[in-house]
Amino acid sequence: MGISASEAIALENQYGAHNYHPLPVVLAKGEGVHVWDTEGKRYFDFLSAYSAVNQGHCHPKIVEALVEQSKTLSLTSRAFYNNKLGETEQYMAQTFGFDKVLLMNSGAEAVETALKIARRWGYEKKGISQDDAIIVVCEQNFHGRTTTIISFSSDQGARKGFGPFTSGFVQIPYNDTHALEEVLKSRPNVIGFLVEPIQGEAGVHVPDEAYLSACKSLCKTHNVLFIADEIQTGIARTGKLLATCGSCNCSDSHCSATPEVKPDVLILGKAISGGAYPVSAVLADDAIMEVITPGSHGSTYGGNPVASAVAIAALEVVKNEKLAENAFRLGEHFRKSLNEALGTSKLVKQIRGKGLLNAIVIADHPESETAWNLCVSMMDRGLLAKPTHGNIIRFAPPLVITKEEIDSCIQIIVDAFTSYETDWAPLEG
Ligand SMILES: *Cc1c(COP(=O)(O)O)cnc(C)c1O
Question: Could you identify the atom of ligand 1 that is nearest to the CA of residue 233?
């Protein structure tokens, strides 16, 4: 076999930049809801690569598309047409209910693309004077790691030492329609509002039921683009194909009950390729997307044949295996069971989420080791999850998980919490 866990960790430490702080587990294999470490120990994956692996690890249909297309034609650049891109654009446009699609690679690139589209739309269509456009964002947002995106982050760890920053952004509190209304009324040069339907990285903050539709209607009134970053919430994660459902044509029965919140600009990434290949996308209707002209934007790998084939396969899996429905049903079950078992635990401040994007807020200081220690204890018991912002643990398994499997996982979580609680005292302060 390959190298040992300690060798793998030592190599990363010595030769890799230290831009992450991983749990001490070295993974060597994945299949469905499971991953295995170098010693062959099996774990449930409750991170799913930050919700990129909604379809499960190494889904055979997605892998087949990846392998077949890689053997046939992998990269042409967009200097020429290829026989896969158009089909994929059509599939995505029809699936999500937009006129046009622009494919990129990483999530951050798709966000950057959406910002450029919005700015150009502001100058060319809304008539804002040059370089005056403002985009409204939310406090505690996470939209990626590029220089412009961190320019409007409120996470000091993500910003420190990386200035000077890009201007043209204004922050308002999340889940606050009044703040949005104020800024839209007082600043006529606002051209877009960029928002996550649920703030995932911030710790799975679910806004009020009416928040997104209220934002959408305020944006409409003020002729401002409503830009939804569904990189983490999209592709069935929250129990609907999109958290801003209404734009998609998923025909899931529980979706039709939700009010329509179609974004003007939709940003997708992560699970749009099921973890097999980096693919991201920006979707918009013609009146917006037409501001993009030859030479104004591009990417060598964006929309390549492999990405195209993989994205269609990944979206078909979501549809054929009814993953939105499964996420909805098992998400309700997961929160209900955890609330019953841990709702009164002194370790637990709150259990929250939507579909299979959930979190437990630990009743301890963000600087405490409690959430980390609980993750290590769950890891020892065969379940991988990771703290975010110190005292929040996110639970986001692949959406192919079964009722039986999620029940075993609930047992692991409950065991880890109850045994830790016995001799635990919160950090003062
Ligand atoms: C992960 C994520 C991004 C960034 O995606 P990358 O592929 O890591 O660049 C942007 N927005 C949200 C909401 C995300 O969860």
Answer: 13
